[in-house]
Amino acid sequence: MAIGKRKAVNGLKNGSKFDNKRSKPADSVELKVKSKKQEVASPEETLSQSDSEAEEENNASSVEESENEEAEFTGFKDENEQDNEEQEEDSEESKKNSKEAHANQKKIQKDRRASKPFADVSIKAKSLWDKLRQKGTLKADERKKLVSELFDMIKSHVKQLVFKHDMSRVIQTCVKYGSKQQRESIADELSGSFVELCKSPYGKYLAVKLFKYGTPKMKEAALGELHGHVTKLIRHREAAYVVEDVFREYTNLQQQNALICEFYGPEYQVFKERTQDMHIDKILQEHPEKRASVMNNLWKTIDGSIAKGSIGFTMVHRAMLEFIQHASSNEAKDLLQATKEQIYEFVHTRDGSQVAMKLFAIANAKDRKAMLKGLRPYFVETAKDSYGHLVLVTALDCTDDTIMTGKLLQAEFENELIKISTHKFARRVLLYILVGWEDARYFSKENRNMLASLESLKAATSKKDPVVRRNELKTTVGPMLLNVITNAAGELLAESLSSQVVVDTLLSVPGDKKEAVNAVVKVFEGNPADEKHLIHQIHCSRALKTLVQNGHWNGAEQRIVKSEEELGVAGTLKDMIGEYLVEWAAGDGAFVVLAVLEALDEKERKKFLDQLKKHQKTLKKSEFRGTQKLLEML
């Protein structure tokens, strides 16, 4: 009943006034008819009639409602069409207005530029600069003439123009292509403003250009202006990059020490003469009472640079190295905690790598794990770096958790083993695992001394014996190396550097190496008379000879240091050499033949010598040193 009532009410509300007026007479007629019929009909008939009449009334009302809705919907469409027309008219008017506004805006902008100081100079200078910066089409004489014209325009106004975003590039071009006198003139005009120039987002590029193309006199004058402001500039958003470039590219060791000296305290910033030939070692030796002050000021600069995001600068790396070299145990731990998650930022420089190595040496197991986690995304790149690979060697040499480091090596190196093995620096990470960093064949004296200096620091934090640690790593890395040798022996032996990895893998890795050995021997199949045969490459003949001997020659002890496991290369190679015996014995493979003879037992050696004796006349014609040694044996 409630729903029926609600519909009736809605119908009355939605109906128009005109409909309500028409409904009144219809209602009155129907009431009269009903009253007459009710008098004649029985109560039941009356009841059924009233029901049917109610249904008819409901049907009629629903028809009227639908007609009203259709009328309203039709009217709604007409209004939309009208609105669209109005919107189109408005859009056309708005377009006209926007064009006019845009034109007015351009005019205002042009007037504003014209009202600025040196507007005429700026417009003419940029026009010349646009011609001057064209490469390939401009001749030297034309460029010289354009630079001269441009220089005449900006002369005496350099200081006012250089801080503008467009004119800074113009003046940079003058410095790049200008003569010595023109460069000195620009530098003279900027005298006293070099610090401000370094801080400018546009002027900083000119500051670098003055160091790049300037004379020694200009550079010395600019460095003189930097003095006393280095600690502030290294923390400045714009100036930090200028100071870093100057320190890294355009200063000698004495000048670098003078810049770093300002990190030691205010007295070294104020008194310039005290920073000449001054170093922290000398300061602490002559004035040990100043240690606390110097180290405190040095730490403040380092900590501030880390907070500002300047930890990647070589200047900060130098400061960090000086700090950790003279730090107490607690001071070194402070540096470790501040940098352990950002170690990848400073492993690529000489000073930074030494800092990272020392931090790995003093860190505990938890800190080493955090440091390796930070390095993981850059593991392969770090291994290929000239300084970074030593950091990885140190990390592997310190970390007792060989399960973690083994999984890390497997995950990062497995798909890159061929590239790593052929890389000058990356292969040393693998060679460290195979033979250790003490091997002079792969690690220079300087690097060995650097790694040896960490032994006392590692003794307090690492428990495992280094040999045990490396042997555990071999069990993880060894199978990967043997697999890649089996599948790509020819590619690895063709390169001198990767052939070293092949040899030391077969000599030192434990396990079944038969497939890998066979793959290496198979590479040397064929006639050595062929120019493309690998035996003609000296590193290949040396590698094969070492494998036949089953160990490396030790010059100091004058003996071959044999591998613990016998490879049996001599026996496998003997039959293959027999097919082309003369070609092997009379050419680059002569020393390999000699090594095979020495490796065989007496019975096999005698058979082999008998075969060689048959070709003795041919061998005498050869001038190879190895062949002469064979003839002596015969």
TrEMBL record:
GO terms for cellular component: nucleolus. Residues 52-72, 80-92 have a biased composition (Acidic residues). Residues 1-117 are annotated as: Disordered. The keyword RNA-binding applies. InterPro entries: ARM-like (IPR011989), ARM-type_fold (IPR016024), CPL_dom (IPR012959), PUM-HD (IPR033133), PUM3 (IPR040059), Pumilio_RNA-bd_rpt (IPR001313). One of its GO terms (molecular function) is mRNA binding. Pfam families: CPL (PF08144), PUF (PF00806). Residues 16-39, 93-103 have a biased composition (Basic and acidic residues). The keyword RNA-binding applies. Residues 104-115 have a biased composition (Basic residues). PROSITE patterns: PUM_HD. One of its GO terms (biological process) is regulation of translation. Residues 124-501 form the PUM-HD domain. Keywords: Repeat, RNA-binding. PANTHER family: PUMILIO HOMOLOG 3. This is Puf family RNA-binding protein.
